[in-house]
Structures are given as structure tokens and as C-alpha cells.
Amino acid sequence: MSGDHHNTDDTGPAARVKALEAILTEKGLIDAAALDAIVDIYETRVGPRNGARVVAKAWTDSEYRKRLLANATSAVAELGFAGPEGGHLVAVENTDRIHNLVVCTLCSCYPWPVLGLPPVWYKSFAYRSRAVSDPRGVLRDFGLELAPEVEVRVWDSSAEIRYLVIPERPKGTEGMSEDALAGIVTRDSMVGVAKIAAPASRRIDSGRARA
Amino acid sequence: MPRYVRGKAGVIERDWGVFVFPDTNAHHAGTKPQHCYSVAFDARELWGKSVEANGRERVYLDLWEDYLEPIAPKSKRQTTKRKTAHHPGRHGKK
Question: A183 Cβ partners below 8 Å, 6+ apart?
């Protein structure tokens, strides 16, 4: 699965978007520089690192975890994250008995302020249709085999709510700092298509991960 | 509303509060604010026996009031209520 969310293909939607952008700019309806600034913000400044900080804080601060589960929008705003597609954020927590998975079957709704822009596979028809009809199979495709007794909860973002999965904190991370923990939280784990592996070798690095 | 839940029985798990209703708002026919609920559907209710499901798979959708209608409980396996479930998990079968 590609981590690149930018479709560089010169056919289909990408070509259409380029054509629209050219026409709108020509007519003076949009400012190309403003558009570039917005794209830059979401490509380089807002991304899954925000969500990773939220998760790491929830793992290490039980009061914060409670606030996050009660009202994710305000808990995330405490860390300075807010904006479009983040007005009604809900955090769902993975445990050894419950696994949450997020999808948007209608389009590609995604919690931008904490995860940035969605990856290409999240927007694919295959993921959007199979995540709701065969979640265990989709997870298997991502390399995650869930035990049959684990409950799967699929969240189809069909309205204004956007979902962030709080992955399980892996074993062997007990001594790690919040900053070091943020470094091991992956985007895929916050969409719910992956778990975070126990960092057998990372334990040694925990002390200097901050540097 | 995603087609795959039309006519299916689900359980209201949470009330997210009142939101603008996009179905009318998008057509400039008014904001028609109304409650939006988190409704849980058992995978077997949605897809029948054709899918790999052991009763521990649920799909949650956020559905506006106008999409829902009350139905009588069919069986113990599937209790469906409407509008009365204003507390998280109150009627949810965990």
C-alpha cells in the first residue's frame, strides 16, 4: 500500500482537477498561491504525526484518555489540532477484545486535523466496499489476522462525525516516554487496519528517541 | 444514506446531537436540523450468511432521524429501538 496520497497520474480525476484549477485560476475565481499554501499545509504540516501525539498522550495520561474518549474534538484541540473535517471527532479505542476499523463508503471522509489527507487505498472502491462487508478479510490483506473472539467494529463515516482509532499500546513499551511512544504510532493503526508491533529492538532506543 | 443499510434493522447506540440535514440543505430546501445517531448493525443482518461473520462484527453508521423508523423487537437476538436510546450503549448488546 502506498503512503502517497497524491495522485500523480495524468488521467482521470487528476487530469480533471488540473483542468478545473487552470480554468478557475484563469477566471480569477481562485488564487493559485492560496491553493498552494493549503496543499502545503496538509502535505507537510498536518499529518498522522498529530494523531500519533494524541495517541501517545492517551497512553501515558489516563485523565487525558478519559477526556479523549468523552469528547475527542476538545481533547485534540488541547494539543492545538483543529480545522476542517475535525469539527466532530470521535475516538474509538482498540483493546484485546475489540478492534475498530474506519471507512467512508460514500466518499473519503477522514479526520484531517489528526491524520492529514487520506491515503490512496482509503479512497479506493475496493477498500470502501469490502471494509464494511468483509472487515476480517480486509484486515487479513493488511497482514492482521484477528482471533474469531475479537469483536470487529466498523465505523462508516456516513455523516459529520470523523473517527480516530486509538490503537492498543504494545507490550514492552512500559518505560518509553510520551515522545518516544508517538514515534511508534503509525497512520494505519489509527485507521484501524494495523496493530502496532511490540518494539523488541526499540526498547533500547527509548531513552534517546527524543533526540 | 448508504444503500446497504436501507430496510435493515439496527440499534441506536449513541445520540450525536443535532445537525443540519444534508439531504435538504444541499438542495437549498432548508437546514432541517435534526438528531443524528450512531446506529449499529450486525454484519449478518446486512450481508446474510454470505460473509465471514460469527456474530462479533458490527457496522456503525451515523444516520439522521429522517432515515429511521421504529420497529418492534423481532427476537432476543435483535432488539431495535428508536429515539429512546439516548445513552451510549444503553440498548447495545455488547
Answer: A52, A209
Of chain B, the end-to-end C-alpha distance in Å amounts to: 25
pLDDT digits (tens, 9 = 90+) for A161-193: 999 999 999 999 999 999 999 999 999 999 999
DSSP A183: T
Reduced to 3 states (helix: H, G, I; strand: E, B; else coil), residue A40 is: helix
Do B10 and B80 contact (CB within 8 A), yes or no? yes
ipTM score for this prediction: 0.82
Q: Given A74, A107, A124, A158, which residue is catalytic? A: A107
Q: Pick the residue of B59, B67, B87 with the most A CBs within 10 A to test the interface with A by mutation.
A: B59
